[in-house]
Amino acid sequence: MRACIGRDVSSAGTHPSSRPPKLSAIRRLFLSAIALGLLYGNAMVALQPPELVARGLSIPHPDAVRNAFDLTSMFSSYSASNEDYAIFAIRTQAGRSGDRGRWIELPLSDHFPRRLPLTAMQIYASFPARIDGDEGRARAWSVLAEKIRANHNRLHPESPVAQIRLDAVQWPTDPRGFYAGKAPGKIRTRLFFSEALE
Amino acid sequence: MTGAMLRKRWDEFWFPLGAPKRVAGFRILLGLYLFCYFGSMAPHVTLLFSSNGVYVPFLVPDYAPTPVLAWSLFSVTLALALAVALGFRVRVTVPLLLVAFLHHYFLALAVSYAAFDRMIVIYLVVLTFAESGRAWAVSGAESSAPYPACGWAERVLTLQAFMLYFGSGLWKAANPFWHDGKLFESVHQGMWASPLAFWIARLDLGPERWTLLAWLVIALELGVGVGFLFRRTQWWAMLTAASFHLSNTLILVIPEFLVCVCIAPIFASDRLLQSVEAGFDQFRRCVLRRPAGAG
Hints:
heterodimer; A: alpha+beta; four-stranded antiparallel β-sheet; 6 helices; 4 strands; about 40% helix; about 15% strand; elongated; B: mainly alpha; 12 helices; about 0% strand; globular
């Protein structure tokens, strides 16, 4: 293995030293521990996809380490629909009079400024969900809703809101473009989080 | 095998004399990448990282600073990324950049569970201990002699590359959704897809060709992973991996994964290293007005 992955130092544009420098024993131990930790974390995830684990091919994998090193499972499922997100909120009895007590839609970009796939990753709170399942995700959504409400009320003091609702708007995928399949009759709205009324 | 022999073999494997220029090249690319990565978030600092923002802290209390302080910390992070790229006091700036990244990560980025963010953390941890300021650094460069800490970093990054690509290929090979090309076709019509991806989707390739393409991706990832293990194939593997990430950027709009290309200098040919060295010397002479070899 050493001969395989090593590189020839003398041909790497460096000048040979008469006496090679050394690392202290403590530093070697420390660097060895980091190398082993990285190797273990990577091997634990990379070399055992769920299908192999189900067949009993598994090395011990604490969830925290597994989640930290899960770099290989991108694009592991798919859907026949695309989706966008909508934030709705109930207007309080304060501020402008026209829409008090009604649900209004808040501009998504006021709260999620990055591109849609990154917004999707943030809004689905994938990491808390992996750690604590649905409970972790629900806690994350509560925090998110609280921040959205505070941000909206700060940006739009003339129309304060009280309760936040998060919806996914879905439509069939279409090779003509991301929104091409978003036609009347094919759109489905899925409520995935609603704050409890205080 | 005796304990002493085992230890000797261990040391020979993990601590070979490494070329400081390779690790320095990695440092420069990672610094520039992080400058662009954070730069892309600059218009949204208040919303992403301040107490006036919309974020979910992960595993930590809500320590979001005021907008002014958030901007200050963000500006320092950008400056640190540049300092790391330039090689300015890297023993201090690299660990500080790691801390700055973790500050933003746990506050707002971790909740998304993005693989590229965790990749950045791994690279920064390795760079922290890699003695990357021994070459191509504007200050703090000690010597360009071979050094075991640089060799350690080369080993770790090589094995990391193997695990990343081989592991990704293995996961896809074991995943039934990848076996008939349907997932691969769907990705070209999903939210990550670029106009180029939709154009490919409109070619009406049919299930057989999508299946073939899906298996080609699996074979490519497995092959690239194994390629990183052998000296003769490392540069080919790196070139293929870089092309793969570039095409991913154009087809799936995930430029964040270009972080994986930062390790390219680890596998650079001697000729390429020498050319870069000549360019760096010229940069020192012209911009810094310091002679080559002045440290």
